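Readers of this paper often ask what the protein records in our data store actually look like. Such a record has a labelled line for the sequence and another for the backbone structure tokens. Nothing more is needed to write down the fold, since each code stands for a local backbone conformation. The record that follows is passed on verbatim for readers who wish to inspect the format.
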Amino acid sequence: VQLQAFGGGFVPAGGSLTVSCAISGRAFSSYGMGWFRQGPGKEREFVAAIEWTAGTTYYADSMKGRFTISRDNAKNTVYLQMNSLKPGDTALYYCASIKTIVLPITSPEAYDYWGQGTLVTVSS
């Protein structure tokens, strides 16, 4: 199983950007995909997640209303649309495959396979 995140780049504050994550060799047991991020000097934090089948979405409170996660099951690809970006959103954005829904969706322990990350830089 491989995850490839792409679409990061430089964007001015208030701008928008969409990052994508394609999963190949998708495991039958994958429940969905999630996004985490890690900013400079910060710990990794949950951003959003989506289930493959039902399309149920989950968001960190600070992202609600600004970020939208979606998926294309036919392409095994998940998207994260980010609007009204702030300098504080600058981070390496990682996608990951959900291995279990028994653990909290916000916990990295609920995920098994991870992408390499794509860098989003928001200028002030």
